[in-house]
Amino acid sequence: MAEFDEDYYDEDPAHRQSVPPPLPPASPREPMGRVSGGHAASGRAPARPEPRPQAPRRPPSKRNLRPVGFDDLGLRRALSDRLLPLLVAAMTFLAALAFAGAVATSTLAQHWQTGAEAELTIQIPTPNDPASASPAGGHLSRLDAVLAVLHAEPGIVSARAMTTDELTTLLKPWLGPTGSALALPLPAVISVELAAGGAVPADLASKLQAAAPETAMESADVWAERLSALARSLQACAAVALLLVVAVAIAVVAVATRAGLSARRDAIEIIHGLGATDSYIAGRFARRAMRLTATGGAVGAVAALPVLLWLAYLAAPFAQGGAPMAAATPLLALPLSLWIALPVLPFTAALIGYLTAEGTVRRWLRRLP
């Protein structure tokens, strides 16, 4: 007979009487059906209670413990949203002015060069004297003979002799207001307009000398070359200014990013040590810098728009041959290239900010131990 475990029973005597003792295990030497302890033989071992079915366990839900917009790197304190956009706005404003200067220089130089190449001035001493030879036969004055030669040329659109009042107006800067009272023989001046894109005929000078000797012909080729050189110089200056603005913007973003890295060095080292990749940290800084630079670029472009409109309105008469611009159409004075460039400036600033910040952070992270 196996001994029962006395620890099973409770110390309370009433509980001992109410709870029946457990059946002892059957002895291997006793036949089946005989159970010691006075219990009735059942012929089989007591059945064990079946375990209750348990409900299937649900997999743990993947809840995002980090709230939306959580700044684990402290970028709002590392990259301030006041100073950097203000500096980028100033750079964008200067870039817009530099680009507008290049466009205005190119437009005005092209207009002036085209007008200078299409004009020709002819001076005829003693215009009222008879001509030595007349292409139409008969007796003509020297002035009429030269006009006849000019009207016969196919590449000349118009040839007009200037009046005495026009000559007096031209001479006022040199002779003063009393220049018209001087008894000086003035040469006749003929203003010639050439066809668009046309050149001075090669034999025109010889024809004029045959019709009226000592006739002087002055073209604006020299002035056109000087205007072209001046325009190229101004465009080069505008390009250099634009490159300087871009370089300063890159330097500003790089300095701001390095200052933010220094301010959040401990947090970045902890996150980097826990397994955060360089791409993750650099991307967070780059996106923050991109948003700030895009905001500054938009502010600078909007601030440059009224200034450019005013400058284009003032320069419109020079580009249109002296025709006054209507006061009701100031928006039409701005060239199309500037209307396209102004919306592009914020995207350019955002691209510069993104690439500069990402490159700066990656170089900084590579130096960590």
Q: What keywords describe this structure?
A:
369 residues, alpha+beta, four-stranded antiparallel sheet, rod-shaped, disordered N terminus
Can you characterise this structure?
- The protein has helices spanning 13-18, 75-78, 83-117, 142-152, 164-175, 204-211, 221-263, 265-273, 278-319, 336-366, and strands at 119-124, 156-161, 188-194, 216-219.
- The relative contact order is 0.14.
- The chain has a 4-stranded antiparallel sheet with strand order 2-3-1-4.
- α3 (83-117) crosses α10 (336-366), α4 packs antiparallel against α6 and α9 packs antiparallel against α10.
- It has 2 domains: 75-113 and 224-366, no CATH class; 126-214, no CATH class.
- It is α+β, with helices and mostly antiparallel strands.
- It is 54% helix and 6% strand.
- The chain has 10 helices and 4 strands.
Query: How many domain units?
Result: 2
Give the strand tally: 4
**Residue ranges: pLDDT <50 for 5 or more in a row?**
1-12, 30-42
Helix content: 40-55%
- Using the alpha-carbon principal axes, give the shape: rod-shaped
Q: Indicate the mean pLDDT.
A: 75
Please describe the biggest sheet, giving its number of strands, its sense, and whether it closes into a barrel.
4 strands, antiparallel
Q: Please list the strands of the largest sheet in the order they lie side by side.
A: 2-3-1-4
